[in-house]
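Consider the following input, taken from an annotated entry for AGRG3 protein (Vidua macroura).
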Amino acid sequence: LLQLGQHGWLAGLKTLLLNVSTAVTRDVLITFSPTAGPSRLNTTEKGKAGKIHLPREIFRSLSSQTVRVVVTVLNIQQLGVFKEVNQTAQVLDNTVVGITVGESSISGLQEPVQLTFAHRQLPQGVTPRCVFWDPSKGQAGGWQSSGCVTQPGDKGTVCSCDHLTFFTLLLNPALDGSTAKALMAVATAGCAVAMAFSIFTMAFCIFVRCRFRFEETVRTNLGLHVNLVGSLFLLNLAFLLNSGLSVRAHPRTCGVLGGLTHYCLLCCFTWTALEGCQLYLLFVKVLGIYIHHYLAKLCLVGWGFPVLVVGVAGAIGSYGEYSIQTTDHQIIAHLCWITSKHLLVHYITNCGYFGLIFLFNMAVFGVAIQKSCSLQGTGAVQGYHKPWKVALVAAGLFCLLGATWALAFLTYGISSTAVLYLFTVLNSLQGIFIFIWLVVLYYPKTKETTGSLSYIIRHDKNTTASQ
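Applying the prediction step yields:
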């Protein structure tokens, strides 16, 4: 064994053998460390190494007077064992702890065996899970968690299991390979549907704007909606091009594609902000508003401002290949986006920019809903504006002002997978929501009304003027 150890074959294996009398009524406590191996509990090592607690129930159930307790600490990276097929989770410190007592297998314990895996604060987006090795899982064996309870903590995670075998602590990433593939499939299908409905929406807005005689305010609103939906169409198109070409793209082509995707995203955010500004002018600054070539100036801001941001970001080399990885550095997706070296650009131009827009738009949304409810309370719009249409207007404005994008701020931590699915589905359906909202809201059903929102705005102006 010493000769084999010198050649490194046993370099990742450390074992402790204890002879324990079954007459002893005390619990057995053992410490283990990936570097020092297992040993008898030493109070000076408490908190610095892992700890094993073997309950007295194990020894009372054995018939012999003395049994041998074997605790083995394995470094699976050096030994090359305990490798699950398509494993995405990372083994803490590459350490597996095996426990055997006597010659027979022990399971179904009333008082569980407790293993405390010592560690520092875990990275964000990682979930610890206590598992054991099941040789019957699959063709080559795999990790199982049945019979084990995980109790995570700041300085260590306690695993309570009702049997003895080889244990470890898996660090599961919030986004694994199968989840990423499913999300990409949902997003791709959703983008295709959103592009189709974006075309329908733009055609509908242009049709009603040219076919019916609306007042100038409503015509401006329709122009704004066309530009917002157009930016959504370009964003979905850029995403489809990105997901299809990023793997095979040349570095320069990938940089251009990343900049294009970033530009379309910023255009979408900017037009969302302009929708909020228009809503503010309509519901707050009700009187005395006239801006020459108003819609043309909005287009200059909505399509021009993102050019400046992307130009500055591109000048410092922010765009290129971006890889989404798990905690064990397995690449699960490639994108042409802002590179990892320039994530500050992403936090400022995307997270920070949208955060400010979202706060402003939600404040305007609150004012708009308050105005609508106050008019409903006076009965001024009865007959023109049914209660279900009030709810539809609110839901449409909520979607139009970019509320679904706010879910991106919640896609961190343990619950991020469910939120990612919700974020992907809702944003994929955003084009459908806007199309239905505009058809119900703006298409004239009678000669008396030319759209519920326009009637509220017009009545609000008249009320303010009379006051």
